[in-house]
Amino acid sequence: MTVSTNSPRQHDLSGLPKPPEKRLALRVTKDALRHIKAGHPWIYGESITKGGQDAEAGDLAVIFDDERRFRAIGLWDPDSPIRIKILHHGKPLSIDREFFAERISAAIDHRLSLISDESTTGHRLINGENDFLPGFIVDRYDTTLVIKLYSTAWFPHLTTLLDLLCEIDVFSVERVVLRLSRSVESCHTFGLQDGQTIVGEAPNEDIVFLENGLLFGADVVRGQKTGHFFDQRDNRLAVQHESTGDVLDLFSSTGGFSVYAAAGGADSVISVDVNQPSLDAAHRNMERNGLHDLTRYNTLCDDAFEVLSEFGRTGRRFDVVVIDPPSFAQKQVDIDSALHAYRRLTQRGLGLVRNGGLFVQASCSSRVSTDEFYGAIQDVAHHADVSLTQQRRTGHALDHPIGFPQGGYLKALFARVQR
């Protein structure tokens, strides 16, 4: 990554704290040391056995073993149960501008084939822990970057990271928008707000970008996450290649699968979501691609479970059914209820697929294992006397690398239905 001489104007961020000069010396449990050695990026508060008193968000925490040997260094986060976000383990090194420049450069290098694809100008640029920058997400929307912070520990380092992001030369950066997670937004944010433009001019409309040659718009200021869900890009393209007849897109959000299905030649598409602004955005995305005139397109602002039940009662059938729900397991105790929800969706969804039709079901719950998810689907199909001919199982796209076990969350099944 080389330095660009045409960096956009950065807003006044003088209220942010300066990067800390001091380093905390910490001791952790033997179990935590084993996790560090295995490359895990999190240290929980209860694993810290010594040190950390009076530490502030963003302080550099150095972890030593019982023989005072360096094991790792990370960012101190007093506002999270995950008290330390590990940046580096192994041999000692400095956490400075050069360190962050190398991390950003490595993330870009990993995605160069995607970045160089002119048919796609939207993707994830930095994937938090999986790119060794825990709690720090960057999504690209053409010439707009959106930073999503999941930790207050990044505030002292934000100016440095902004400088480096604006120096990227493999594509133009004209604007940077800051998004804050709910947990961060509830803490001291040094005057910064969710949706604030911190570099360049604030957007007054959706940011339009390309994804596999299709046009999408993202509300990067108020939209869910950063405005678009890039992780399903490859699965959307697969649906495009398989779409025919009537398509039902459940939990459709801004219509990603719907647009691809229409572009693939579907006769009709129905997008279902409980969020009307998302459905409005889906309609705009159809219009951007000139698909609303080619495909019978309708939206339903309703609960997906209720829509499945109603269509089941009325005998409605589809050639393609796509089910892409939000995470049902935010905590470990949610796993059983999440699996129950997946089973309900499978049972009702399979009942709407015409014989020989395509059934697509995804999960973004990292706490629900791959075996549990696929096992639940197969079990429901077996009891419903439905044969599923598996076409593919998919996981993460190139721009969503997996750097540790909990970093792998996305899984999807594509299967043909036979009764």
What is the strand and helix layout of this fold?
Layout: E1 23-28, H1 30-37, E2 42-44, E3 48-50, E4 60-64, E5 70-76, E6 82-89, H2 97-110, H3 112-115, E7 122-127, E8 136-141, E9 144-149, H4 158-166, E10 175-180, H5 182-185, E11 196-199, E12 207-211, E13 214-218, H6 233-242, E14 246-250, H7 256-263, E15 268-273, H8 276-288, E16 296-301, H9 304-314, E17 318-323, H10 335-350, E18 353-363, H11 370-383, E19 387-394, E20 411-418
Parallel strand pairs: 1-4, 9-10, 14-15, 14-17, 15-16, 17-18
Antiparallel strand pairs: 1-3, 2-6, 4-5, 5-6, 7-8, 8-9, 10-11, 12-13, 18-20, 19-20
Give a brief rundown of this model.
With 419 residues, the protein is α/β, with parallel strands linked by helices.
Continuous helix count: 11
- CATH architecture of the largest domain, by name, is 3-Layer(aba) Sandwich
- As laid out across the biggest beta sheet, the strand order is 16-15-14-17-18-20-19
Assigned CATH superfamily of the largest domain: Vaccinia Virus protein VP39
- Biggest pleated sheet: 7 strands, mixed
Give the integer mean of the pLDDT values.
95
User: How many extended strands?
Assistant: 20
Helix content: 25-40%
